Amino acid sequence: MNEIIRERIAAFREKAELPELDDAKLFEAFAAHCVLHQFHEDEFNAGQHRTGGGNDLGVDAWGIVVNGDLYSDLDGVKGAVESSREMNVVVIVVQAKQSANYEGKVVADLADNLRQICGRAPIAYTASPEIRELHEALGLVYDHHQKLTENSPRLEARYVHCGEEANADLERKCRSAEDALDELGRFHSIRFEAVGWRRLSQLYQRSQRKINVAFEWPSKVAIPAIAGVKEAWMGTIPASVFVERLLVDEGGSIRKFLFEDNIRDFQGESNEVNSGIAETLADPARRKRFVVLNNGITVLARSFDISGSECHMSDFQIVNGCQTGHVLFAHREQLADVHLKLTVIETEDEVMSDAITVATNRQTQIPAEDLRSNRQIHREIEEFFQTGHAPRDLYYERRSGQYDARSVTMTRVVKQNQLVQAYASVFRGQAHEATRPAKLRRDPAVRIFHPEGHAVAYYTAASIWYQVEWLFRNNRVEGRWRPARFMLMAAVVARFSGGAALPAGRAKAERFCEGLLAQIWNRDEVERLVSLMVGRLEAMAEADPSTQRLSDLVRTKGFTERFLKEAAGVE
């Protein structure tokens, strides 16, 4: 193996906390990380995308991006497909070989296998559960073809190896593979590439950098000095420049994480306002007036530098314009003659950033008191996480990308949706609903991020999430049990607490959680219990009369409750 790649993999092993993986599995995870990051620039766990083991039909990792979110399993894709009004879909498959010599036969074999995996008919070959999940996930996408946006779905296949870049013969084989897969008529576009060690090294380096964009913006003026604001600019910009340079990543996916400071997610084009935006863009005469018909985009940036008309910006969020941005992305082929109002604010502190975010979101129909309380509980949680010390150090990502420039282990960064899933599973009895974090956040009965909640409880939930994820990431628990991870988290916490519920009072909740944390951070004991519970889970799944797959069983309340009851007495 090339020495540069060896060093890159060693750095990846440390950052991804993968001390237990052997070299072959580690290279698969490394390749998945490098390739998938092209299509999803936010942080993700590459190990979750690795298929590993036999009967993988040459697919060592896969991921499906739906509307900017990356999914690694059937449950995730199903939730995204069912909840989306429109879908922009990118399917990514990776084959990873440590060999320093590439083989044209690998490309031909992978193309043949992908014809089976991506086809409508059942897979004729013997295939692992992870590959059958990919096949079914694609079937779900095709079943909802009426939701697909223009130029979707796309297939991106990569043959990653440690040799030199492809010669003319291998390039011809890649083009032949594209033609063979195109005959299926299942994808709007197909790209099959061989990735050698130089390109792989570049992809890894790029994955380690925070988002930095450069764009031309000649039509701008400076806003007069404001306390708490380093500088601010406003003006107009071609909508195509905004979409291509700021909104879309290298792989052509929308950077959905740029909208995380918006209180409301994209409401879809069936929304009255958004359908109006779409109609304006579709009309050659009206779209020329877009700049005066639309409120435009407001961006908060940590760094914004200007050199003449060229602008460089990093670590930024779109705090106003979520609806406009998504509609522009969906209609990016219709942006000729379309200009957009743009405001960029480089803030000096978090207080000013929060004030601007609240003010811009107040333009929507969201009560101001809800905005204040929502942001306060997140701050309390973030501050509590900051009190932890190694080996119990975890970091709550209140704002997307806030730890990108810091020397923290990214596997210890807990995102909002992950915290929702863990907290709802272990303290709110919702393990069967954990794959639907958006639904959990909307349900008032679940009381996620309620202002009267206790930050220590969220940290406790994050702690068991981290420990169980570590076991899966390092193959201490077989990946086929991953769909049941939230049930396992709930079962371990219930075992440690003796089945007691989280107390309502702050002082009692703190004592309760301190007792749990002392046990949760004993990884050997957590692993022992999880291993025992997996054995019971396997027996229950095999005996279940419904013959449903595990990923479906764990989403049913009855099966989850039966498992938790069984797990309480397992020895």
TrEMBL record:
Abortive phage infection protein C-terminal domain sequence ranges: 259-440
Source organism (scientific name): Glycomyces sambucus
Protein name as it appears in the record: AIPR protein
InterPro entries: AIPR_C
